[in-house]
Structure formats: C-alpha cells, structure tokens
Amino acid sequence: LQPTNSPWNTPVFVIPKKNGKWRMLHDLRAINAVIEPMGALQPGLPSPAMLPAGWPLIVIDLKDCFFTIPLHRQDAPRFVFSVPSLNHCEPMCRYHWAVLPQGMANSPTICQMTVARMLQPIRQRNPDILIYHYMDDILISGSSLKAVEQVSEQIQSAVIVAGLQIAKEKVQQVSPWNYLGWRIRDGEIRPRRVKIGTGPIRTLNDLQRLLGAIKWIQTVVGLTNEELQPLF
Length: 232
What we know:
This protein has helices spanning 29-32, 107-125, 145-161, 204-221, 225-228, and strands at residues 2-3, 12-16, 22-26, 57-61, 80-83, 93-96, 130-134, 137-141, 177-179, 182-185, 188-191. By secondary structure, it is of the alpha+beta class. Strand 9 and strand 10 (182-185) form a beta hairpin.
C-alpha cells in the first residue's frame, strides 16, 4: 500500500473470520464496471485423474500470489480506499494498492498469466514431466522421484527470480497429496470432504457458500453446467 491523493476512491469493509481475525474487503465494483475484462484463461480445473498411476508427486502452493505481483504505476492510483479516523479526530488517510488487489476483475487472469509465464521455460526444458498449474497451485509429476525433485528445485528458483513466494509449510512431498479439492493417495483419488449446509438460504453469502460446495463436487456427482445454470 502507498499513500495517495488520487480521487479514485472506493469503499472498504472488514468482515470477521472464523479464527477471530478480520478480513479486509475492498469493494471494487465501480472500478470493475469500467475495466475491460480479460476473460478466463482456463475453462476448467486440471484433473489429477489424468496422472499416470504410481508416479511420484510434489505439490507447491504460492503464497499471497496477488500481493506479490506489482500493478503498473499508471494503473495503481485507480485502486484507492480511505481509512477514517476514530471520532473524526483527524483527516482520513488515503492509500492505493501497489500490487494486484483482491476483488479486481482481472486479478485472477493476471495471476494466471504471471505464473504461466514463469513456468513456461521449465515446461520446455522438461517435456517428460507433467506440470499442472491453476492459479497459485502447482502439481509436478514424473516417472521418477529424482526428476520430479529436480523440476521442483527449478520451479522454486524461478519463483524467487519472478518475485513470487512459496508457502513452505504447504509444500507437499509425501502421500496423501491435496490438490484442488482432491486427495491423492496410493493410486486412489477422492474428493476432499465437502460440507454442504442444509440450513435455510437467507443471505447472498449463504447462496455463494452452497454454490461453491456444489462446484467442488460437480464432476464427482455428474452434474452438468446446464443443470446448474438456474442456480447462477
């Protein structure tokens, strides 16, 4: 974040998290309304069911991916919010994002492009290694553990050069592996446990939670996009 006098000012909120902490939500709907959408780069999630049986895996999770990708200096002043003082005891402080803000329509696409660009030379150097990438989740698989570990080291070096970060505590090198809602163990792939609320839908957030859970199990239960369309 950087102090700014930019007139582009949109509201922020804080919402409680289950762990007692707070999450800041920047309402960028007004900005998104005047942004040309870049569209999605991946029509779906890569399925681990396509992995050859018995191949070793390593799963890498990038840390705070949006917040490690800088905004262009000409664009940054458009993503502004103000922090009021308690009891109006002093003027508000105004800041703009210097990195990709959560809630901006094109942030996911830019994140995808940045990580894909970082991975492309590694893919070309290692055509026999499978590299699955979706947002900030990367899965590496190959016929030998040594080859997979070598590619993992290449990716970790490339991440540093690109200015990104790896969540060290989330690197998975042994079974079971969790990847994009799936649990992979000893040649078996199962969807991770998804809790679907059975209570009444009273708010938009209740509906979003339900739809999110349904999307995770969509391919498992055989629901088509056409069948789900009335819910969206």
